[in-house]
Amino acid sequence: MGQEKALLEVGREAMIRRVAGVLKEVFAEVIISGGVEENGLRLGLRVVPDLIAGGGPLSGIHAALCGAAFAKCLVVACDMPFICPELARYMMEQSEGYDVAVPRHGQHLQPLFAVYSKGCIRAIEESLRAHKCKVIDFYPLVRVNYVSEENLRALADIEVAFFNVNTPSDLVKARVMAENSRTGRVWLV
Prior knowledge:
This protein is of the alpha/beta class. The chain has 8 helices and 9 strands. Strands 5, 6, 7, 8 and 9 form a 5-stranded mixed beta sheet that branches. Helix 2 links the parallel strand 3 and strand 4. Helix 3 packs antiparallel against helix 5.
């Protein structure tokens, strides 16, 4: 994208502010993992740095779990500007009895809108030491609930909720989607 995605505006506010705002509706603690300290200060959020560098999002999940006050964390990418509180609550419910609760969406998993318990820390560290940095690489080492797409659809339009901004054209789409939701028009995906 050529610049820090978290600060790109969708619907008249930075994506990270949108995401943090939704999460604050549901959770007593919201932290930024691996982010820029200045962004955390602007949002009034604590930033936790990666403890094991070079592991991408998996290092961020590890840092969040190590720095969190609670036993479980819903991990959300900062470039998912249309998440909703209902899905966040539901995912936490689906994590009961598991180390990970991860949504299925089509043939793919959404590991950056998933719940991880502190019980994952050792397995994540093992994966990172073995240079297995794909988030799902450690899943065979823990108890995982693969949350059904059908159940998620009952709560939200998951094509919208799981939409993430990876390219300039995605950013244009996200801005149109945000404007359409504000004016009550149909989503354009």
